Amino acid sequence: MIRYPRNLRGYGPTTPDPMWPNGARIAVQFVVNYEEGGENNVLHGDAASEAFLSEIIGAAPWPGQRHWNMESIYDYGARAGFWRLHRLFTEAGIKPTVYGVATALARSPEQVAAMVGAEWEIASHGLRWVEHKDMPEAEERAAIDEAIRLHTEVVGTPPEGWYTGRCSMNTVRLAAETGQLAYVSDTIDDDLPYWMRVGERDQLVIPYTMDANDMRFATAQGFNTGEHFFTYLKDSFDALYAEGLAGAPKMMSVGLHCRIVGRPGRVMGLKKFIDYIQSFEGVWTPRRIDIARHWADAHPPVTQIEPHTWEKTDFVAQFGGIFEHSCWIAERAWEMELGPAHDSAIGLHSALARVFRSASHEERLGVLNAHPDLAGKLAAAKRLTAESTSEQASAGLDALTDAERAAFTRLNTDYVEKHGFPFIIAVRDHDKQGILNAFTRRVENDTETEFTEACKQVERIAREIGCSPFAGAGILIELPESVPVFGSDIVAV
């Protein structure tokens, strides 16, 4: 058994309606990252200077030394850039979320007072602005705890949101395990919030952004002017606003840094964007905590059914009959690499169909021969599975005239004598006459052609009948509208 942990499915092809307040077509959320005074620096006990997100192209850490230019760039963000952004947002009537590094906040009391006074949300950006990828789990857990403690001491209230940024593979789980956070944002995997199960806790995740982010002013492939930044933000907004008008509203995140977009040659791009979106109806500009509270109220977590996590006996018991009387297909599917992408009708069918397609000719022939004849002796003897009985009834094959039954019996006999397996067709695609027409046409095909066609029909029957709904499990396949859950469209009822 191999289990793949990444969730490559998310909400699938149909996103839930977020039901933004007042019928908003889009939620545009601004984040101000406050990192100045929390970056790598020998003054802070680090081994080297900072080398990340600055005006210095190709910057490298200076082991054991302070880097005056690097420090000065960060200093600019605190001394000038922050206040420029504070004036801009205050004048626009927008309250952003601050991702505040705890040690940086502790070194900037006037800036913190301004944030609190303007009712900006101050979420945690970790203890220090350093890499966590190689940090031992125990050390990172302790750093998260200390960040929350120091943040509470400096701000006066504990953080309700978390974003490390330079995170490890453990960060989201460790942040969730604190049990103190309304949301975690160390993902960039969606345009809507979603719930993630961490242990016994349902943790809300509000994804962040790396593209609609001024950090690209400091990267080789990025923005060169404020106009470039404005154009990219505008295009992102236009695409998402159009989706909202079409009935699928989303969230747009905009990531900002005091030392980057706070420069006068860049800030006008941000101002132009704010002016632009304020010219539209149905635009909500909340703090992240406002999104979290709304989502928790409008879209509370629901119980997810995750077949990829089931024991083999349970998996086979539930899905062993999807391919008629061929539980070995479910047994082999369970041994495959399954993950969250398979916790759906399409995903499960894909896994089962892959087993069927890769089976030997003899094994697939056995599956074909396990299928019932159409309206023939098996049906008369009531030897069909419940799924097959329902399927045949849907096409009216349970209510044939004597002449129709005789025609089916004759065709069944001729077909089996010629090809060596019963005629198979997904009857829900046809009425009685359509089935008879297909029967009459296909009985004349060569056996190889019919074998291929019959196998295709078996897969279709499994998809249409076996995988939706799953008989006897109290499981529905399609999510109700607006269910805010990742990982599955199989919902217990």
Summarize the structure.
This protein has helices spanning 68-92, 102-106, 109-117, 137-155, 171-177, 226-245, 264-277, 288-298, 312-319, 327-334, 345-358, 361-370, 377-380, 386-394, 402-419, 432-442, 447-466, and strands at 2-3, 26-34, 97-100, 121-124, 161-162, 183-184, 194-198, 201-205, 250-257, 283-284, 337-338, 475-476, 491-492. It is α/β, with parallel strands linked by helices and 493 residues long.
What do these coordinates show?
The protein has 493 residues and is of the alpha/beta class. It folds into two domains: 282 residues, Alpha-Beta Barrel (TIM Barrel); 170 residues, UraD-like (Orthogonal Bundle), CATH 1.10.3330. 43% of the residues lie in helices and 10% in strands. It contains 17 helices and 13 strands. Strands 2, 3, 4, 9 and 10 form a five-stranded parallel sheet that branches. Strands 1-11 form a two-stranded parallel ribbon. The chain has a two-stranded parallel ribbon with strand order 5-6. β5, α5 and β6 form a beta-alpha-beta unit. The longest helix is centred in the first third of the chain and has 25 residues. The radius of gyration is 30 Å and the shape is elongated. It starts with a strand and ends with a strand. 43% of the residues are buried. The C terminus is likely disordered.
